[in-house]
Design a protein that fits this description.
six-stranded antiparallel beta sheet; globular; 12 strands; 22% strand; 372 residues; alpha+beta; Gyrase A, domain 2
């Protein structure tokens, strides 16, 4: 049922009045206001065939003025320069506004979360300066996971031996077990006694009654002692390499760690001062039997041979004179011994002979071979 508007009955009951001017504006009551200035023909709008349109005001619903949707809210812009702190530069943390729920009414969205450079699957954790990492525990954990290294064994790769003067023997870089074995096997060979002392890492042995003079009633014992020393070194895996006089007055014999050699044997020899006579000290039996004959085959009618207890002496005949050089004679000696499976392995200079030690120095030749 439709009803007529409530003001329809009163539309013709009241007379119409002319439009009144607004309060505070001058002019007569009939609504006409004379112009104060003459009309400007240039400022008047031009006439158009289209009707004039009034400015329309957009309709704003009341609900939109009460609540602003979050998805249409814009962050406020300011012209002031934001302050930067050292902590914000080192540790990028989200603002408190970003921690609020995005669906809450009236909440202003905060800045986006910072991009992480590491693994995106791992959540970012805020570092706390009070909770410092335990470096000691981390180091202990790393040591537990590392494989255990075997204990370092005391090893010696080179051993030095020097014959000093007429009674001293200097041994360098020797191990404790080597020293014990030398005391057990070498010391009892010398009947006059041995004094041992340490000087830093050097082991100095002093034999009484000057065994390195190569003279006197005990000279044969000194020869056997030197041969036994080389034999012991070879059995324990130290082979003679060379000799040097670097930083020392006497030659230093260098023994290098190698394989143990229990099959080889050693014997000594020495040349006369002129190099025309050689003495073999207790040589192996097959060398004593064949050495002189082989030399005579190389130097016919020029070789004399004699024997003094345990020493085999082979020399050039005196009537030959200087027809054979000493170096030529030594060459034939080395050749014959090499044919008999023995070779020259080392030379050991002994003490000077003569009164007051002013004579020539005698040099021992040490030959090494294997008995067949």
């Amino acid at each position: 049922m439709a009803y007529p508007p409530y003001y329809a009955g009163y539309q013709g009951a009241y007379p119409s009045y002319a439009q009144q001017p607004m309060m505070g504006q001058p002019g007569p009551s009939n609504g006409y206001m004379p112009p104060l200035y003459a009309p400007n023909p240039y400022g008047a709008p031009a006439a158009t065939p289209y009707p004039a349109q009034s400015m329309q005001v957009p309709f704003i619903p009341p609900a939109a003025m009460l609540e602003t949707p979050v998805n249409q809210a814009q962050p406020l812009q300011t012209t002031t320069r934001p302050k930067h702190s050292h902590r914000a530069a080192t540790t990028p943390l989200p603002l408190k506004s970003a921690l609020k729920k995005t669906g809450a009414a009236g909440a202003t969205p905060g800045p986006a979360a910072p991009i992480q450079l590491g693994d995106a699957s791992q959540p970012a954790r805020r570092s706390n300066s009070r909770n410092k990492p335990d470096h000691g525990a981390a180091a202990a954990t790393m040591l537990q996971h590392q494989p255990e290294e075997p204990p370092i064994k005391e090893e010696c790769y080179h051993m030095f031996v020097t014959f000093k003067g007429d009674s001293e023997l200097l041994l360098e870089n020797t191990l404790d077990n080597a020293r014990k074995e030398i005391e057990k096997k070498i010391f009892p060979m010398w009947p006059h006694g041995v004094e041992a002392r340490f000087s830093g890492h050097d082991w100095i042995l002093r034999f009484r009654n000057a065994p390195w003079n190569m003279s006197g009633p005990d000279v044969s014992i000194a020869w056997r002692l030197i041969g036994a020393l080389f034999t012991l070194f070879a059995e324990r895996g130290f082979q003679f390499m060379t000799s040097t006089k670097c930083t020392t007055a006497q030659p230093r014999l260098i023994f290098q760690s190698s394989f143990a050699d229990r099959a080889s044997m050693f014997f000594l020899a020495y040349l006369s001062r002129g190099g025309r006579r050689i003495s073999l000290i207790n040589p192996p039996r097959h060398i004593g039997a064949a050495f002189g004959s082989k030399l005579r085959a190389l130097l016919p009618n020029r070789i004399d041979e004699s024997e003094d207890e345990e020493v085999l002496i082979v020399e050039i005949k005196r009537e030959i004179g200087t027809a054979i050089k000493a170096s030529h004679f030594l060459m034939h000696i080395l050749r014959v011994l090499l044919d008999l499976q023995f070779h020259l392995t080392a030379t050991v200079p002994m003490a000077r002979g003569g009164p007051l030690g002013l004579g020539a120095r005698r040099e021992l030749l040490i030959f090494k071979g294997v008995l067949s």
